[in-house]
Amino acid sequence: MIYVIVNALLYIFLLLFYMFSREKNILGVILIALYTIVAIFAIPRYYLSIELLHDVDDITLEPFIYLFIVFIMFVRYFVKVDIRNLTNIYAKGRWKKMYFLIYVYILSTVVVFYLSINDVISNIYSGEWGDIKKASSELDVAFNYHFFLEQILVVFNSQSTIFMSVICFFMLTNNKSKSLLYILLFCMFFSISLLSLKGGGRGVFVIFFISIITPYLLFKKNLPYKTIKLINKILFSSIFIATVYFFTVTVSRFGDFDTSYNIYETYNGLTSLLSYMGQSFLFWNVGVYPISEYGYGIYGCEFLYGNDAFMNFTLGTRWITKFYTFVGSIYVDVGPYITFFIALIVFVYSFILLNIKRYNIEDVCFFTYVYVKLFIGVFSWADNYVIDYIICFIIYLFLKIKISICVKK
Predict the structure, then answer these.
(1) Phi-psi region of 406 (alpha: psi -120 to 50; beta: other; left: phi over 0)
(2) Is the dihedral of CA 399, 403, 405, 408 positive or negative?
(3) In b/e form, how buried is each residue of 262-291, taking b as 16+ CB within 10 angstroms?
């Protein structure tokens, strides 16, 4: 127990130190506060393990220290960047490409609706979210595609939400096509809802709201008062709907847990939430840090190895499908030395980035994408996260490179 408490104190002291520093921003406060809260929740989660689950009883200090150092190296830029520089955006030559992406996203939402609506209606009618989640994780594909273009559009829809959110708020600050942008906001919420209801998952909603709130906080000071008021209403309404869905799914999935797993004999929705909030640091400690062999891409690029390749991979220690932080997601593929080297490169590069006084719109999009990844990384990164980064980098290059997408008359 003492090591779990020490780990929580490290993040508490980091948060206090950051709060009293001059170089801070709201996004940095939120990010460090989140990791601090999860570190604190690891204490009752550890107690839950001792009393009931018996799954994290051999905690050591070294993994916590390693994780803390690597975490600081990864997030340095995001907690020190001046928000005013991030909103000092250069977008010349990119407006037509941004409109093009918006129209493609709206089209992709139509495709997502067409491919998922039957399953969504069936899932809502059944209400068996636990079985739905289990079934969705066992499918080779999430959709029954009829054409390759449909698959491209669905992938674009799921991977471009953060970019589209930044573009939307940036264009709102410039009073550009407000009606179109409100349609875009609706499409983002609608498509995320469809994806969540189709798979019975909850994490997609969390990612969506962070994807919306992050650029909202970035651009809020530059938005008209009426626009802020309208967006607040949309956000609060969406959060209410998502909260109802979140707890409904939680109760359905964990309120009457499968007793074939005897360690969960008194497991329920409340202990499920506690377990989710506090498990990532603990399973990083006992389930990932001690591994003796590494995947070398089998997790981050599982798509290239085949479905369930990672689940069939032996890591050399106890492995349960749990959260283990974004550091753990990298670590399982490349081990301690390369993970630390990657963190060191990010740390050194942050000194260069912090000298930038004006950003291109694609830079802010990519900043937001990585920030959201670090935010959800307090739990873990999903498999194929390297593929996700590559897809978003392609969108980044599309905005970056000077090309013409219009036919000249």
Answers:
(1) beta
(2) positive
(3) eebeebebebbeebbbbbbbbbbbbbbbeb
Which of 402, 389, 407 has its CA nearest to residue 97? 402
Structure tokens at 18: 């950051």
Distances (CA, A) of 364 to 90, 155, 187, 211, 399: 10, 21, 21, 13, 11
- Return the structure tokens found at 124: 């809502």
Please name which of 195, 394, 387 lies closest in space to residue 303, comparing C-alpha atoms. 387
Place of tokens 């990298």: 330
Residue 161: phi and psi, rounded to 5, are -55, -45
Q: Are 251 and 269 in contact (CB under 8 A)?
A: yes
Q: Give the side-chain half-sphere CA count within 13 A for 134.
A: 9
Q: What's the token pair of residue 101?
A: 């992406």
- pTM for this prediction: 0.85
Residue 285 identity (one-letter amino acid)? N
pLDDT tens per residue across all 409 residues of the chain: 789 999 999 999 999 999 888 878 888 999 999 999 999 988 888 877 665 555 566 789 999 999 999 999 999 999 999 888 888 888 888 889 999 999 999 999 999 888 888 877 877 776 655 555 555 554 434 567 778 888 889 889 888 999 999 998 998 888 777 788 889 988 988 888 888 777 666 677 778 888 888 998 888 888 888 888 888 887 788 777 777 766 666 666 555 444 443 444 444 556 666 777 788 898 888 888 888 788 887 888 877 776 665 665 555 444 445 688 999 989 988 889 999 999 999 999 999 999 888 889 999 999 999 999 999 999 888 778 888 899 999 999 999 887 554 444 4
Q: Which amino acid is at 375?
A: F
Structural domain boundaries in the chain:
2-400
CA 259 to chain centre: 31
Which is it for the CA torsion 234, 239, 240, 242, positive or negative? positive
Question: 């975490």: which residue's tokens?
Answer: 71
Helices 95-126 and 178-199, axial angle in degrees (round to 10)? 40
Cα separations in angstroms, 277 against 16, 51, 149, 325, 379: 21, 17, 38, 11, 8
